[in-house]
Write a structure and sequence with these properties.
This protein is mainly α. It has helices spanning about 1-15, 25-50, 55-75, 80-100, 110-125, 140, 155-175, 175-185, 190-195, 200-225, 235-245, 260-275, 280-305, and strands spanning about 130-135, 145-150, 155, 225-230. Strand 2 (about 145-150) and strand 3 (about 155) form a beta hairpin.
């Protein structure tokens, strides 16, 4: 309920500050902007539930996006084949993070900090720093940017895909043995192992599934941005982590629900969108997001102390 209340307060504040905020057109744009970050935050939630963190989330998304777009434009591949190769690449990148964490026992923070640089550099080298416009890409890669109108709202297929991802992963976390194992590993990995939970295998699947989700976010981003660019969403890591923590998922693992992450992503994007409508400079919007995550982590620490 706390994220829902915070979202209501944010909506009310921006409605008072700028009357155009709650128009149908503005709300449609807000939902379109939320789709990519909200999708990334699903993968980030899975990893944070296991008491890890993924700093390479944005880098995997951008690398996947550039590979898919380059294969389609320069390699002449059909859109479906380029899309599938991009998905395989993202899954492999996520699995590599998982293998480094589970097999070499490196801390997730260090692993993903390193792969953040590696994947970013590969994306820049592969693309030559060049953007690829949507007009040069097959329709399948752009399809999630297309949409439909409901009343005055214009929604895109990317929003629909995002909702489906939340439904599927939410069901897996709450209704399957795999989901219960994810929470158990995040709460106490040693106790989970002694109880017969294959902790390392669960961790590996979490990082691998997260990679797949980042690939879907890359597909959404091409349609949303109308181009594939290596400089897309430079603060994706910050926004995804902020969405997860504001949504009530503990950075210490084992506690959180996916619907909270969706509300957290809406809060982050509402803050960005509302400040933009007020004419606030980009640097101040980034500062506000950083302040939000500090407050959210402080609240998480306080909740843990109260419960203890």
């Amino acid at each position: 309920m706390s994220p829902l209340f915070l979202l209501f307060v944010a909506f009310l504040a921006f409605f008072i500050a700028t009357p155009t905020f709650l128009t149908a057109n503005s709300m449609g744009i807000l939902l379109q902007q939320t789709a990519v970050v909200a999708t990334l935050a699903v993968g980030q939630t899975l990893i944070i539930l296991t008491a890890g963190i993924d700093l390479s989330v944005g880098a995997i998304m951008v690398l996947t996006m550039m590979v898919m777009a380059s294969l389609a434009r320069d390699g002449g591949m059909p859109g479906l084949l380029a899309l599938l190769i991009g998905f395989v690449l993202a899954v492999a990148a996520g699995a590599l993070n998982g293998l480094l964490v589970t097999r070499i026992n490196l801390p997730p923070f260090i692993v993903t900090l390193g792969t953040l640089s590696v994947y970013t550099a590969i994306a820049l080298l592969y693309s030559g720093g060049e953007s690829i416009q949507a007009s040069h890409l097959p329709g399948l890669l752009n399809v999630l940017g297309e949409g439909f109108a409901i009343g005055g709202f214009r929604l895109t297929w990317g929003i629909v895909v995002m909702v489906i991802i939340y439904a599927v992963v939410g069901y897996a976390l709450s209704q399957t043995a795999w989901g219960r194992y994810v929470y158990a590993v995040g709460d106490d990995p040693e106790s989970a192992r002694l109880s017969g939970v294959p902790s390392k295998r669960i961790l590996l699947t979490v990082y691998t599934v997260a990679g797949l989700i980042y690939a879907i976010a890359a597909w959404e981003l091409i349609g949303r941005a109308g181009a594939a660019t290596p400089n897309a969403v430079p603060d994706a890591n910050l926004q995804s982590i902020t969405a997860v923590v504001i949504g009530g998922t503990s950075l210490f693992g084992g506690r959180g629900v996916l619907i909270g992450t969706l509300l957290g992503a809406l809060i982050v994007q509402t803050l960005q969108f509302g400040l933009s409508q007020m004419g606030v400079d980009q640097q101040w919007r980034v500062l506000a997001t950083g302040f939000l995550i500090i407050v959210a982590v402080a609240a998480d620490q306080w909740i843990r102390k109260v419960k203890a």
